[in-house]
Structures are given as C-alpha cells and as structure tokens.
C-alpha cells in the first residue's frame, strides 16, 4: 500500500492550517528560525573571520609573490620549510663564524630574473600630535605601489608621493587628533612631514603607525645623528624585500632553494599555497611533522551539545500551541475515519511545514544580519573579512537541523493528539489523565547519573564525559519538570486568588507548561554555564595578573642622576597634564658606596645594598628549594594559593624592580608614600617614619621586629669625590634596624619592600638622592592627556619618564560584554517562551475566565492572571536552568583544575588557583528582572475586557 497519498493529504491540511492561523504559524516559525538564525550567523562569522592561508598571505605580502629576508647568519647555506617560518643551517653544518655573520648578503641577486621589488624597513619613533607627543612605528615603504594592494588600503586623502609626505593609519589619526594636511614632526632629528592620507591594514585594523617613502626618514635621521652626537641614531629593522616574479611564473620552490643557498629566507605565496612534496624539501628529513590538535576543547563541545538540545526544546511550546488549538480539526479527521496514525501524521506534517519555513527563514535572516553587521563585526575582531565565506554543506546541515527540529518538536503533541478520543477533541473537553510515574523516576536517575558522569569527566580530564554528562543531567531535569510543575499547584493554597489560579492552572495543564519551562530552562542553562565559566576564568586571570604599579597611580622617575634630573620642572609638567588628585609623594633612592647606575662598567666597581632574608619557617618559601616538589604533591590548590600569597614566597617567583631601587627594593620617603602609593593608612606607621623607623612591607624579612641590612661600601677609582672620603678597601657593614612591620597584605606592593626615612639612611652612611614622585589619579588618562604630558616632559628637558599602570590594559577585556550578551539572550528566550505559554493559557482558560466574570470577579483579574501565569513559567524555568547550567560549568573548571595541579606539581611556583565564581549579576538579572518583566508585559498586553458568552456544554 502506498503511504504517500495519506501523507500528501496530511501536508495539504498542515499547509492550509498554517495559512489560516497566520499569527500562530508566524510564532512557530519564529521559534524555529531564531536558533537557526543564530547558528547560521555564527557559522558565517566564524568562517569569514578566520582567515584562510591565502588571506593570511595577502595580509602579509599584499599582491606580491614573495618576501625575501636576509638572516643574521651571513651568506651561508640555509634550509627552510615551504611556509618560510622554520629555517636553519643544514644538519651537521658548522656554525657560521663571526666573520661570516658580519659579511653582507646580496639579497637582490637572489631574485628571479625579470622580477621587480619593493624595500621595507621599520623603526620606532616619537612624533608630535595635536595634543603633544606619542610613540609609534614608522615604516618606509612605497605604499602607493599596486604590489601593496590587499595589505594596505587608502581610505582618505592620497598616498605619499614626496619625501616630505607621510600617511597614517586611521587609529593613529584618531588617537593623535591630527587631520589630513597637518604637519607631523619626528622628534630627535626634528624632521617634519605633511600628513597626506589615511590608510588601513585589513589584517590589523587597530594598528597605529605611519608610512613614508623609502629614504625619507631613516637616512636623514642617520645623517643628523652623525653630525650631532646628542641625537640617538635610528633603531631601524633589517630590510625586507617584497618581490613580484616574472609574469605568469611567480616565485617557485626552485627559486626559494636557490635563495637559501645564499643565506636568504623566502616566504612565497605560490609555495605556501601549493607546497612541494617532502621528498623535495631538504629540511623535512630533519624536522618533526607538525601535530595537528584535533581535540575540541571541553567548553566548545559542551556548549555545542547543549545548544542542539536547546534548539529542540525551544520549538516545543510553539507546537503545543498548535496542537491545542487544532484539536477540533484533528477530531474531525478522526470522525471521518482517520486512524490515530493519520492524526499524528497531520501534526507531524505541520511540524515539517513550519520547520522547513523556519529553517529557510532563519538561514536567510542569518545571511542578511551577517552582511548587515559585517562592518561592526570587523571592527570588533580587528580585521576585515577577506570574503563572506560560505560552506554549503554546513549551511545545508543547519537548515536540515531546523527542519528536523520542527518535526521533533511536533512529535510529543502528535503522540498526545493521536491518543485523544474523538469526543474530547470535538467537544473541547480535556478529560483527565494521570501523569506518568515512570518519567520522573527516569529523570531522577538521569540527573544523578549525569551529574556523576560530568564531575568524573572533569576530574579525569575527559571532555567527552563532561559534555555527555551535562546533557544527560539536563535531560534528567526535563524528565522531572512535570512533577515539579505539579508540586507548584500545592504551593498556592495560601496565596491570593490570581496567583493561586495561575499555579493550579500550570499544574493542571502540565503538557502545556512543561515544554515552556523546558525551553526557558535550556536557554538559561546554556547561558549560566558559559557565564559561570567565563566569570571563573576572568577571576583566575585577575589573580595571575601582576601589576607594575599600585592601581590608580602613576610614577614620575628621573632619567638622569643628581642635579641633572631637574625634577621640579618635570613634576610641574605632569601635574598640569594628568588628572591627578591630592598632593604628590616624593621618593628617593638609596645606595652604598659608588653609584652602580654610574659606575657599572668595572666588575665590583660599585657598592651594593641588600636586605638579608632570614631562614626558617615564616621566612623561607617552602615551594622553592629542597622538598618543594614533594610538598606540591601533598597540598591542594587552596593550600598552594595560601603559600604563594604568603610574604615568604611573595618575591621568590617574580619580583618587579623599579624606582631606582635594585633588588633590595628600598625607597626613601615619608608617610605620604604610604598614603598615596602603598595605601597603608596607619597612624602608627606614619609615626614610625617620622621617628626614623623604616616601615617594612614584607614581614618575611623581619625577625624579632628587626631587619638585617647588609651594605658593601665599595668606591670606584673614577668616583673622585667619594673615593677621597673613603680610601682603602671596601667596607662591609651589617646593621640590624628596628622596623615597623606592615600587615602581610602589603607584601605584594609593586616595586617596594621597605620605606626608609632619609635621616636613617644618612645615619647608616648611605647615599640618598631625590628620584621621583607618586601621584594618585582621579581616572584613567585619555590619549590626549598622555600625549600632552609627554610633550610637557619634553619641553622640561626630557630628564624624567612616566610609569603608568598596566591595570588599564587588563581591565579592557570582553568579560562584562560576554556576560551581558548571555543574559540578554537568555532573557529574550525566557520572555518568548513565557509569552507563548501565556497565550496558550489564555486560550485554554476562556471558559474559566467567563465563569469568574459571571460570579463578579473584577476585570483586572484577567490581566493579573496572565501576568502570574507568565511569571510562574519564567521563574520556574530560570531557577531550574541556573541549577542545570552549573553542572557543566563546575565540571569544566574541574578539568582546568586537574591541568593546573599537574603544572604546579611539575613546577611548585606555578599557580594552581582555579576558582569557581558565580556570575551573580547575570543570575540576578535572569532570576529577578526577567521573570518580573515577563509578568508585567503579559499583564500590560492583556485586555481586561471580557465579552460574556454562554458556557459550552
């Protein structure tokens, strides 16, 4: 028997029903199209933003065929891989002698006959801006040549054509405040250029650099430096040659081998895109093949698995709407002799029709939105798309997934419709049917097993088990949702009328409520999982971050010694340009014997100063030295963190030396240094400094309230002034100083271990010199303020330099943006699913609302009932989703913890801190704001008017 006629009729009925109920059909299509749209847009964006090998070569070479570069090894034979990245001398060949390395390499002689070339050299430079001075990179390259198209593109103005012209990237122009036609001066040689055009690098949109013609910057700068020894010569890079081979030939592998024989490394477009076989590559025989990392990360695998589950669940509530509203039509099919299978076929055909339309609409909208937001995406990623990369099979798979989603989402309603009696369908009666007792049991078992598998996978480092366990746990929660919804009905006994009706209605109609709750739960679970992992990873990175300054401060340090520093003028320049608050805190540097910053050429030609660290518990770091690895095997990550943060281990792994202190990290200063930089607001510490007692920030260096300060008073024969006062051999002293010991948390103060009063240093026979100042900032300085400050320092003689906090760069990450986008996504899905179930509730509850109105219920009951029905679905789904989302997040962090512990036990000074941080702001937004907003919207959009009608039956 041919089944097609039955299915043809089912599809005809489904199509007509979809056209007849346009609003419901549009809702179903939207619920299916949204996930398809998101996956399509993500696929197109990922494929387009990920450059192909050809696009990478264009970003590096432009339209040239190859880049030729000489090495520092001289004209000796080399071998290289086809990609031009790995190269070296032949195996067994002797290392080139210093004489060979100094011999020049005639690179142009290695070019293929009939080719043409461009030279490229870069150098760092300090240039003037509209606001002041900034540091940048200048590249000498004829960027107007067609050989550079694809690598550098003109966006405004004109290319440089003369040696007094220069072009700049758009980001440089924006940061500097310059405009086309302005003059730019290169400081040092004081060469001025006219800014003629704005360019962009498609592969690096964030670049801030300048471009000039070859010979227009480096050569005149070098001539100026040769005439004036006070001007530093240019620190130019070695030249590179961009080569365009003979027409139609390019640069072949044979050309590359010929260049290698003369000591030249080549990156050839033709060779990189079509590499020769290993048998023709001499270096391949001695190089291990690359290992391609085919393992998908745990996070991506888990999120992908949960996303597929979510797509299916999102369409479930929408088809619950269709099945409920089409029950009379399905009853007519049964009354005309249709079997239960044919009734199910009608519902499934509806899923296929609307799923297909949703898939096509989602794919089309995904293409449209990606094209529409392409410039924004390119600016965000920092590179232009080479082209909109489309993988047909991937797009087709996404569309088929949308179609299958529609059918799967219609499967449950189809089974329910097939079981419903014809009489119930025609009369609109719901009948009574007990819920399944097996499903909740299976759900609990799946939930327990899923959590156990995910946690075990995290501990064992198995990403497949993490993904599988997370999905199984979420399926287990889905199986428990009907029981949970039923339990909600019992909570309404003591509540007012409308919330009591809403809870009981949700419990009575679990077939309608459960899919909506499941959709919300799936969306929230995925968002919470990613948000928790992202927040935890951000907290780990924040812990591993080592600041160069106390956040919110800047430091002005002398570049010269003694009176040459002229710090008063430099301090005035900073105070006029930067957003400083309060007064400054001046510091000095201290040393013994001759100053090592001046007399550093001879061995033992200057003095030393050292804080001697005692040994023993509380002083020696147990994570370093003998027994460290054995200890690392026994301790947990939390115990390791406590040890790493202890004063004894604070300086063992990494210590920042600044402020002219050397490794002793002692500065000369007063209480203002403690207030503005150390952030130690302690009257006792200030009093100690005033009385001449040093303040020690790292308690591991103190024993019985004292520190041992060892000084070698060695004086250089060239130090005429001090040598006359201290003739003879070097004098070694060790003084025990009573100190004020700060709390342990101040041991991590960047760059300072002890603050010493000036009179104490002089009493010990040490030398002291004013060295700089600390300032507290109101806010982060702008580009204009930074450039103005550098210009003011230049006018003050450029005898001091600024140190700014790297905290600014650390804070400029995308964590907050990612968390906000996740919350918005989950919130939109929550509102949509809650709106669907509220609409279905209104359709089902018309008879109940009519009865309420007939017995005198006020019109506002209709509004408040819709609001509470929406609130019940949204809040239940959010709470369950939050709990479900924690499973993969915790499992993934356990995977990271396992890897961190392995690294720590190999090197005990490596951090094993792997926190699990809850994104409370995101969870609060989802658990409170979104459900309340959903309820208010449902109440506000529901009409309070009710037309009385005769009760059916």
Describe the secondary-structure layout:
Elements: H1 4-20, H2 22-49, H3 53-61, E1 66-70, E2 79-80, E3 87-88, H4 98-102, E4 116-128, E5 133-140, E6 153-157, E7 165-169, H5 170-176, E8 183-186, E9 191-200, E10 209-212, H6 218-227, E11 240-244, H7 253-260, E12 264-268, H8 269-273, H9 298-325, H10 327-335, H11 340-372, H12 374-381, H13 392-419, H14 422-427, H15 438-460, H16 463-490, H17 497-508, H18 510-544, E13 553-558, H19 567-577, E14 580-591, E15 608-612, H20 628-634, H21 637-644, H22 647-650, E16 666-668, H23 671-678, H24 683-690, E17 695-696, E18 706-713, H25 720-725, E19 731-738, E20 740-741, E21 754-756, H26 758-763, E22 767-777, H27 783-795, E23 800-804, H28 807-811, H29 815-844, H30 846-854, H31 860-906, H32 920-940
Parallel strand pairs: 5-10, 7-9, 16-21, 17-20
Antiparallel strand pairs: 1-11, 1-12, 2-3, 4-5, 4-11, 6-9, 7-10, 8-9, 13-22, 13-23, 14-16, 14-22, 15-18, 17-21, 18-19
Helix pairs in contact: 1-11, 2-9, 2-11, 2-13, 9-13, 9-16, 9-18, 9-29, 10-11, 11-13, 15-16, 15-31, 16-17, 16-18, 16-31, 17-31, 18-29, 18-31, 19-27, 29-31, 29-32, 31-32
Your description of this structure?
The protein contains 32 helices and 23 strands. The longest helix has 47 residues, at 860-906. A hairpin with a 4-residue loop joins strand 4 (116-128) and strand 5 (133-140). By secondary structure, the chain is α+β, with helices and mostly antiparallel strands. The strands form 4 sheets. Strands 1, 4, 5, 6, 7, 8, 9, 10, 11 and 12 form a 10-stranded mixed sheet that branches. Strands 20-17-21-16-14-22-13-23 form an 8-stranded mixed sheet, with helices on both faces. The protein has a 3-stranded antiparallel sheet with strand order 15-18-19, with no helix packed on it.
């Amino acid at each position: 028997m041919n089944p097609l006629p039955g299915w043809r009729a089912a599809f005809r009925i489904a199509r007509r029903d979809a056209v007849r109920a346009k609003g419901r059909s549009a809702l179903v299509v939207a619920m299916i199209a949204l996930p398809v749209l998101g996956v399509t847009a993500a696929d197109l964006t990922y494929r387009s933003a990920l450059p192909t090998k050809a696009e990478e070569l264009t970003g590096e070479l432009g339209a040239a065929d190859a880049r030729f570069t000489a090495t520092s090894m001289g004209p000796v034979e080399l071998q290289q891989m086809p990609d031009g990245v790995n190269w070296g001398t032949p195996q067994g060949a002797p290392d080139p002698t210093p004489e060979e390395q100094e011999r020049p390499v005639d690179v142009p002689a290695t070019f293929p006959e009939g080719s043409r070339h461009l030279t490229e050299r870069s150098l760092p430079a300090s240039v003037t801006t509209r606001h002041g001075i900034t540091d940048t990179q200048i590249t000498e390259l004829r960027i107007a040549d067609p050989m550079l198209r694809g690598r550098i593109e003109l966006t405004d103005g004109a290319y440089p054509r003369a040696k007094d012209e220069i072009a700049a990237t758009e980001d440089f122009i924006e940061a500097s405040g310059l405009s086309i036609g302005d003059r730019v001066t290169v400081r040092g040689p004081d060469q001025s250029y006219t800014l003629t055009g704005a360019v962009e690098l498609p592969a690096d949109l964030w670049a801030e650099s300048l471009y000039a013609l070859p010979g227009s910057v480096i050569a005149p700068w070098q001539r100026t430096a040769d005439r004036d020894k006070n001007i530093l010569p240019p620190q130019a890079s070695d030249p590179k040659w961009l080569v365009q081979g003979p027409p139609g030939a390019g640069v072949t592998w044979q050309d590359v081998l010929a260049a290698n024989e003369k000591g030249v490394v080549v990156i050839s477009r033709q060779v990189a895109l079509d590499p020769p076989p290993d048998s023709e590559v001499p270096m391949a025989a001695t190089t291990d093949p690359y290992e391609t990392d085919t393992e998908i990360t745990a996070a991506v695998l888990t999120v992908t698995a949960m996303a597929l589950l979510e797509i299916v669940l999102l369409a479930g509530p929408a088809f619950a709407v269709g099945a409920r509203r089409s029950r009379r039509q399905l009853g007519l099919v049964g009354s005309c002799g249709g079997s239960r299978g044919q009734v199910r076929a009608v519902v499934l055909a509806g899923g296929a029709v609307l799923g297909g339309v949703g898939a096509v609409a989602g794919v089309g909208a995904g293409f449209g939105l990606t094209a529409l937001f392409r410039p924004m995406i390119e600016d965000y990623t920092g590179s232009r798309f080479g082209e909109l990369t489309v993988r047909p099979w991937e797009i087709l798979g996404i569309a088929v997934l949308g179609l299958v989603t529609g059918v799967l989402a219609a499967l449950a309603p189809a089974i329910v419709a097939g079981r419903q009696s014809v009489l119930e369908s025609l009369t609109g009666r719901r009948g009574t049917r007990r819920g399944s007792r097996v499903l909740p049991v299976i759900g609990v078992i799946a939930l327990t097993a899923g959590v156990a598998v995910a946690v075990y996978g995290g501990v064992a480092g198995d990403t497949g088990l993490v993904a599988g366990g997370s999905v199984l746990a979420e399926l287990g929660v889905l199986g428990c949702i009907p029981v949970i919804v039923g339990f909600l009905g019992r909570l309404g006994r003591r509540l007012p009328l409308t919330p009591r009706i809403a809870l009981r209605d949700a419990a009575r109609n679990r077939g309608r409520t459960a899919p909506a709750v499941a959709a919300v739960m799936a969306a929230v679970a995925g968002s919470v999982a990613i948000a928790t992992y992202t927040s935890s990873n951000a907290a780990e990175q924040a812990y591993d971050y080592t600041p160069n300054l106390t956040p919110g401060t800047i430091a002005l340090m002398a570049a010269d010694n003694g009176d040459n520093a002229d710090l008063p003028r430099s301090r005035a320049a900073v105070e006029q340009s930067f957003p400083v608050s309060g007064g400054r805190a001046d510091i000095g540097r201290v040393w013994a014997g001759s100053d090592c910053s001046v007399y550093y050429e001879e061995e033992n030609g200057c003095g030393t100063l050292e804080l001697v660290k005692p040994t023993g518990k509380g002083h020696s770091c147990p994570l370093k030295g003998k027994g460290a690895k054995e200890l690392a095997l026994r301790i947990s990550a939390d115990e390791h963190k406590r040890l790493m943060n202890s004063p004894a281990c604070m300086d063992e792994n990494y210590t920042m030396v600044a402020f002219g202190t050397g490794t002793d990290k002692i500065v000369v200063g007063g209480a203002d240094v403690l207030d503005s930089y150390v952030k130690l607001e302690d009257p006792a510490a200030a009093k100690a400094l005033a009385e001449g007692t040093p303040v020690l920030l790292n308690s591991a260096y103190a024993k019985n309230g004292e520190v041992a300060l060892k000084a070698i008073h060695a004086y250089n024969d060239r130090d005429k002034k001090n040598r006359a006062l201290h003739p003879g051999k070097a004098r070694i002293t060790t003084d025990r100083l009573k100190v004020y010991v700060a709390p342990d948390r101040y041991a991590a103060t960047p760059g300072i271990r002890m603050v010493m009063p000036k009179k104490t240093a002089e009493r010990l026979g040490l030398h002291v010199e004013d060295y700089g100042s600390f300032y507290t900032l109101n806010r982060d300085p702008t580009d204009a303020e930074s450039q103005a400050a550098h210009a003011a320092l230049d006018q003050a003689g450029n005898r001091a330099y600024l140190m700014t906090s790297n905290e600014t760069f650390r804070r400029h990450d995308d964590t907050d943006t990612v968390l906000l986008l996740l919350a918005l996504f989950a919130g939109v899905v929550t509102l949509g699913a809650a709106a669907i179930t509220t609409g279905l509730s209104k359709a089902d509850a018309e008879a109940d609302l009519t009865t309420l109105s007939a017995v005198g219920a006020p019109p506002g009951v209709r509004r408040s009932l819709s609001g509470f029905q929406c609130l019940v679905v949204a809040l239940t789904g959010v709470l369950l989703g939050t709990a479900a989302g924690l499973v993969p997040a915790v499992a993934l962090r356990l995977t990271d913890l396992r890897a961190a512990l392995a690294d720590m036990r190999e090197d005990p000074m490596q951090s094993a801190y792997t926190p699990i941080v809850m994104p409370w702001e995101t969870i609060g937004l989802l658990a409170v704001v979104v459900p309340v907003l959903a309820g208010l919207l449902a109440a506000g959009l529901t009409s309070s008017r009710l037309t009385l009608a005769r009760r059916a039956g």
